[in-house]
């Protein structure tokens, strides 16, 4: 993972928390799957189904913001994020899996950031 980007995300968000890690990891996976980087314009679109800490990582790491029109918050209560490549029509939906066993805040943060992608999220893509 990109430690420097993670550090900058913490500064942007104001604190280090598992929620930020969820959004950060979702962005890293989506960017890789869709072949996109930080969205200068609106080529990367995100629909987030929650409106808490993970969204700050999506703003900072993926460049999706409501103001720019490429971040849509559609509250369903699921920790689920859909990303679309507006140029190709490809998409990926990531749904956070239930974490098993007792984990401290620090352990869950590390798990979210470092475990294999398929262990952290159910991943559905359109390719
Ligand atoms: Zn937070």
Topology diagram in text:
Layout: H1 3-13, H2 18-34, E1 44-48, H3 54-62, E2 71-73, E3 80-85, E4 91-96, H4 105-114, H5 117-120, E5 121-125
Parallel strand pairs: 1-2
Antiparallel strand pairs: 1-3, 3-4, 4-5
Helix pairs in contact: 1-3, 2-3, 2-4
Describe this structure as you would to a colleague:
With 127 residues, this protein is an alpha+beta fold. The protein has one domain: 60s Ribosomal Protein L30, Chain: A (2-Layer Sandwich), CATH 3.30.1330.130. It contains five helices and five strands. Strands 2-1-3-4-5 form a five-stranded mixed sheet. It is globular, with a radius of gyration of 13 Å. Bound molecules: zinc ion (ZN). Zinc ion (ZN) binds next to α2. Zinc ion binds next to α2.
Question: For the record, what CATH class applies?
Answer: Alpha Beta
- Give me the side-by-side strand order of the main sheet: 2-1-3-4-5
Helix- and strand-based class?
alpha+beta
For the biggest sheet, the summary is: 5 strands, mixed
Order of helices and strands: HHEHEEEHHE
Question: What is the percent of helical residues?
Answer: 40-55%
Discrete helix count: 5
As a percent range, the share of strand residues is 15-25%
Number of strands: 5
* Rg value: 13 Å
How many discrete domains? Answer: 1
Outline:
globular
Short description:
This protein is an alpha+beta fold and 127 residues long. The protein is built from five helices and five strands. 40% of the residues lie in helices and 20% in strands.
Give a quick set of tags describing it.
single chain; alpha+beta; 60s Ribosomal Protein L30, Chain: A; five-stranded mixed β-sheet; 5 helices; 20% strand; binds zinc ion
């Amino acid at each position: 993972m990109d430690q420097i980007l993670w550090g900058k995300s913490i500064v942007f968000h104001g604190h280090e928390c598992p929620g930020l890690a969820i959004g950060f990891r979702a962005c890293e996976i989506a960017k890789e799957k869709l072949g996109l980087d930080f969205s200068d314009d609106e080529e990367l679109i995100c629909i987030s189904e929650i409106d808490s800490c993970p969204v700050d990582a999506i703003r900072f790491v993926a460049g999706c913001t409501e103001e720019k029109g490429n971040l849509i918050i559609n509250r369903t209560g699921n920790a689920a994020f859909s990303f679309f490549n507006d140029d190709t029509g490809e998409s990926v939906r990531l749904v956070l899996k239930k974490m098993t066993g007792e984990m401290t805040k620090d352990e869950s943060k590390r798990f979210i950031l470092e475990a294999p992608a398929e262990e952290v999220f159910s991943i559905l893509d359109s390719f």
